[in-house]
What we know:
Helix content is 23%, strand content 24%. By secondary structure, the chain is an alpha+beta fold.
Amino acid sequence: MASSFFTDSSCIDCGTCYWMAPKTFKRDEDASVVYSDPNTPEDWMTSYEALLSCPTNSIGVTDKSLLSKKPAEVFPRLIEDNVFHTGYHSERSYGATPWLIQEKTGNILIDSPRMTSVLKKRIEDMGGLEWQYLTHRDDIADTDLFHDHFNSKRIIHEGDKIKKTEHYEIILEGNEPWNLTSDALVIPVPGHTKGHTVLLYKEKFLFTGDHLAWSHSLGHLYAFKRHCWYDFNKQIESMERLLDYNFEWVLPGHGAPVYFPKSEMKSQLKKCIEWMKE
Ligand code: SF4
């Protein structure tokens, strides 16, 4: 299948397209470029999902008729079990990745996608939203629009309370973990910001916001040293705290989701802490 993808100068180098469709997009200096034509229907579809997720609408196709043949309802896309990637990243959270847990007791949105009519309808079909959990203050984006539509409860830690969030329904306090549901535990991890938290779900999925991510170049888990807005030493302490927990998936705000069996994930986390202390 011939490709016609391109990127334009409005790219903000958020990284979304090159983790979602690494066979098509790559980073070149401070922007994304198309370096290889998708030549299978699967690769074309993945590139199309990256196009839909691009926060700045910087990805296009030369033959627009190709887009009209593609379904709009590709998101939320299943990761595993009942955990989804919602797509439609927002420029207001610098393209951070939003996630969704579909639960009988009420769905949980993790950080905020762009509000689009297609995504809103898809979330309605999946049962709406009970909770909107925010890892930290930078990834709020369209949280209030989703709240207004779904009447969901917004959750953030008081350390990241800003004018925009002071009226949220649940403001967490202190440094103790807090059970959102019987399967979902919010763990305070101050460092990147004062009120950063992560969400551990079913001791399997860890939604990490800007606290922890995967580095392709280093080949291990890492933290954003140059983009730490509060206290990197505290972030190291918070990372050590995570050694008390088991999980298999790291679902970050920036970069690709990563999977390791539990014991290997713990080794990965130790490697990350050693690297942070260097
Ligand atoms: S998703 Fe869009 S803004 Fe982000 S790196 Fe790709 S082209 Fe640039």
